[in-house]
Amino acid sequence: MAVCYTGSFALLSLALRGIDLSIAYAVWSGAGTAIVAAIGILWFGEPAGAWNLLSLALIVLGVAGLYLSGRAA
Fold first, then answer.
1. What is the model's pTM?
2. Low-confidence residues of the chain: pLDDT under 70
């Protein structure tokens, strides 16, 4: 787990060379939340109700929107 966190922070610092901190952190935290939730649904059998899936989709759309708005600016 420590290796994954270290790698994650290293990749975040590389991303900061090309995009703003606010966009990079939003993408990093939003994507991490969505990935963990998806792992919980797929591997651990957590319920995948309509609200859960809608919420995951909104996270992904929000992260994509922030990323695209940062590139446009």
1. 0.68
2. 71-73
